[in-house]
Specification:
Elements (H helix, E strand, L loop, with lengths): L2 H15 L9 H7 L1 E6 L8 E6 L2 E7 L4 H17 L17 H14 L2 H8 L6 H11 L3 H11 L4 E7 L2 E7 L1 H5 L15 H8 L6 E4 L7 E2 L2 E9 L4 E8 L6 E2 L4 H9 L14
Parallel strand pairs: 1-3
Antiparallel strand pairs: 2-3, 4-5, 4-9, 6-8, 7-10, 8-9
Length: 282
C-alpha cells in the first residue's frame, strides 16, 4: 500500500464518523471498528502498543508510561492497522525517526488524519503564523503530537514554508508546502543542522527563543538571496529537533542556475515530500 492510498482511506474513515469538535474524541473511531482500549503499564519504554483480536473483537493495548498524546496517536495508529488490514512491523522505538517499515508509515499517516482531520485542522490554521508557538498551540488544542501537527501545518499552509525533522543534529526529513515545492526550493537531508541556525544553537545550550532571521542559503540548497524565518523546538531527552521555516513570498530566494542538486533531482525523479509523514523504506 502506498502513502496516498492510506491517506484517502483514512479520510473516508473520518468522514464516516464525522468528528465535529476538538480534540477529536476517539471513542467513535473505536466504535466504528468494534474495538476497546487497554492500558498496560508493564510495556517497555519505546514500545507504544499493539492490537490483538479476542473472540472476534479488536483489543488495542497502549503503553501506560506514555503521555496522553502519545497514547492517542498509538490508538489511531492501531486503528489504521485494522482498517488498512496491514500487519504490524514494530521494530524500533515508536518515537525514532531513523527508519520505519512501509506498513508503519501508512498507519502513521492514517493516525495523523484521524487526530487532525482536514475539515477541522485547516480552519484552525487560518491566519496563524508558521512558528513554534502556533505548532505548540495547535498540538495542545488537538491533543496531538508536535510532529503530526507540524507536518500538517506545512501541508495545509498557503505560505512558502517547511517543517524539518532532525535526529542527533542531522536532518532526516523536510516537509514542504505546495508553494515551496512549486518554487523548487529544497532542504537537503542527511546533513548536519546549519551552524548558524537556531536549531543547532538549541542542541548546544537548549536555551534561546525564536524566530530568527537567516540568509536563505543557510537552509536551502543552491539558492541566491532571500531571507528565511526559523523557529524550532528541541527535545533533549530524544535529541530531536523540530524546525519550522517560512519565507516572504515577495522576497523569495532564486535557484542558482545549473546546480548539481537540481540535475540530480531531475535525473533520478525522486518523489517530493508533501507533508504526509514519508518515512523512508529500508
Amino acid at each position: 500500500m502506498d502513502d496516498f492510498t492510506a491517506e484517502q482511506r483514512a479520510r473516508k474513515f473520518v468522514q464516516s464518523v464525522a468528528p465535529a469538535s476538538v480534540p477529536v474524541l476517539l471513542e467513535p473511531y473505536l466504535a466504528q471498528i468494534g474495538a476497546k482500549v487497554t492500558v498496560d503499564d508493564d510495556l517497555a519504554e519505546g514500545e507504544a502498543g499493539y492490537t490483538m483480536t479476542v473472540k472476534g473483537r479488536h483489543s488495542i493495548v497502549v503503553n501506560g508510561k506514555d503521555s496522553e498524546r502519545r497514547q492517542r496517536f498509538t490508538i489511531c495508529h492501531e486503528i489504521g492497522h485494522v482498517v488498512l488490514e496491514l500487519e504490524s512491523e514494530h521494530e524500533d522505538p515508536s518515537w525514532s525517526y531513523e527508519r520505519r517499515p512501509p506498513n508503519e508509515v501508512c498507519c502513521d499517516i492514517f493516525a495523523a488524519e484521524l487526530l487532525l482531520p482536514v475539515s477541522l485542522f485547516k480552519p484552525a490554521l487560518l491566519k496563524r503564523e508558521i512558528d513554534a508557538r502556533c505548532m505548540a498551540d495547535l498540538a495542545e488544542k488537538f491533543n496531538a503530537s508536535l510532529f503530526a501537527t507540524g507536518s500538517r501545518m506545512v501541508t495545509f499552509s498557503s505560505e512558502p514554508c517547511a517543517f524539518v525533522v532532525s535526529q542527533g543534529g542531522k536532518i532526516k526529513y523536510a516537509f514542504r508546502s505546495s508553494s515551496l515545492r512549486d518554487a523548487k526550493l529544497w532542504v537537503p537531508s542527511g546533513i548536519m543542522l546549519p551552524d548558524r541556525s537556531l536549531s543547532a544553537a538549541l542542541r548546544k545550550e537548549a536555551t534561546g527563543a525564536g524566530p530568527i532571521e537567516l540568509d536563505a542559503d543557510e537552509w536551502f540548497d543552491d539558492v541566491e538571496g532571500g531571507v528565511v524565518l526559523e523557529d524550532a523546538i528541541y527535545d533533549a531527552f530524544r535529541d530531536q529537533t523540530l524546525t519550522l521555516l517560512s519565507l516572504d513570498i515577495e522576497d523569495m530566494p532564486e535557484k542558482a542556475e545549473s546546480t548539481t542538486y537540481a540535475r540530480q533531482e531531475d535525473d533520478e525523479g525522486q518523489k517530493e515530500l508533501d507533508g504526509n509523514l514519508p518515512w523512508p523504506k529500508r
